């Protein structure tokens, strides 16, 4: 991506696009890893972006599908916080009326791929023997999603960088970073992404309204 005089050129798979303003709407750490900025980002911003964790980007998410939400019949909410198995936080993911029936959980980043048997053992311990045979067990390690997380995303742990005011400043007057991690409030949530978009959208419109 090149800032040239009063416009920006963006090289991509299908060629080169030209715009007066560009909003880079991906997590800052991914932006700094995947995009070459010319001129480069200011050192302080580049460092901040590289250190900023991707929200949930290092987690593994597990969904276990069942024929029925059997746990409800036992008076269980299908929710748990656990420090003894691979899943740390679990919730009932069933649709309306319990169809389709599912439990989901988050696992912290681990060196080894998550063992399915360990997941099922934990579900059985928490919700009973009927949890032994899920119809399907989906395991998604978000570290491997290149459009969400940069390599070694699990090494990023300083959430104090979220919503840093430096993210709100224009880069070379016409490029902005805007993602949930930069949001002025609710950073990390969808509301944070919307807040970041509103802020940066207004700044970009101001530039467009006053051509140089
Ligand atoms: C596992 C997980 C669970 C989450 N759970 C919740 C939740 O329950 N509630 C909640 O509010 N938030 C949750 N989040 C955070 C959620 O991702 C954000 O709130 C929301 O999606 C952020 O929107 P965004 O626009 O900042 O980024 P994203 O939604 O990540 O959008 C960025 C887009 O840019 C694309 N992209 C990336 N790199 C490039 C590139 N080089 N060129 C072109 N396109 C590119 C990506 O494919 C993606 O479509 C979760 C995140 C993860 C990873």
Spell out the key features of this protein:
Polyamine Oxidase, Chain A, domain 2, binds flavin-adenine dinucleotide, three-stranded antiparallel sheet, 2 domains, alpha+beta, FAD/NAD(P)-binding domain, single chain, five-stranded antiparallel sheet
Describe the structure.
The chain has 212 residues and is α+β, with helices and mostly antiparallel strands. It is built from five helices and ten strands, in the order ββββααβαβββαββα. A hairpin with a 2-residue loop joins β2 and β3. α1 (28-34) packs across α2 (43-51). The longest helix is centred in the C-terminal third of the chain and has 20 residues, at 190-209. The radius of gyration is 21 Å and the shape is elongated. It starts with a strand and ends with a helix. The mean pLDDT is 95. Residues 25-26, 30, 34, 55-57, 59, 61, 142, 147-148, 179-180, 189-190, 193 line the site of flavin-adenine dinucleotide.
Could you write a compact summary of the structure shown?
The protein is of the alpha+beta class. The chain has helices at residues 28-34, 43-51, 70-73, 116-127, 190-209, and strands spanning 2-4, 7-12, 15-19, 22-24, 60-66, 80-81, 87-92, 101-107, 136-141, 175-177. It has 2 domains: 2-55 and 148-209, FAD/NAD(P)-binding domain, CATH 3.50.50.60; 60-144, Polyamine Oxidase, Chain A, domain 2 (Alpha-Beta Complex).
Count of the domains: 2
What is the CATH C level class of the largest domain, in words? Alpha Beta
Beta-strand percent range:
15-25%
At the fourth level of CATH, the homologous superfamily of the largest domain is: FAD/NAD(P)-binding domain
Number of beta strands: 10
Q: Can you give the helix content as a percent range?
A: 10-25%
Query: Which value, in Å, is the CA radius of gyration?
Result: 21 Å
Shape: elongated
Q: Assign the structural class, choosing from mainly alpha, mainly beta, alpha/beta, alpha+beta, or little secondary structure.
A: alpha+beta
């Amino acid at each position: 991506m090149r800032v040239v005089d009063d416009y920006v050129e963006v090289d991509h798979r299908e060629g080169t696009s030209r715009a007066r303003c560009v909003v880079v709407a991906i997590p800052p750490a991914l932006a700094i890893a995947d995009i070459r900025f010319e001129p480069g980002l200011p050192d302080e911003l580049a460092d901040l972006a590289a250190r900023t964790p991707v929200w949930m980007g290092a987690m593994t998410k597990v969904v276990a599908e069942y024929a029925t939400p059997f746990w409800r019949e036992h008076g269980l909410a299908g929710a748990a916080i656990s420090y003894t198995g691979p899943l740390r936080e679990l919730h009932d993911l069933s649709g309306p009326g319990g169809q389709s029936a599912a439990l989901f959980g988050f696992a912290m980043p681990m060196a080894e791929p998550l063992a399915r048997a360990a997941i099922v053992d934990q579900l059985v311990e928490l919700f009973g023997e009927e949890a032994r045979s899920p119809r399907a067990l989906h395991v998604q390690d978000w570290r491997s999603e290149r459009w969400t997380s940069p390599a070694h995303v699990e090494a990023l742990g300083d959430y104090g960088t979220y919503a840093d005011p430096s993210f709100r400043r224009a880069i070379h007057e016409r490029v902005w970073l805007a993602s949930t991690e930069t949001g002025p409030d609710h950073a990390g949530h969808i509301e944070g992404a919307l807040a970041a978009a509103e802020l940066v959208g207004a700044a970009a419109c101001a530039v467009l309204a006053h051509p140089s």
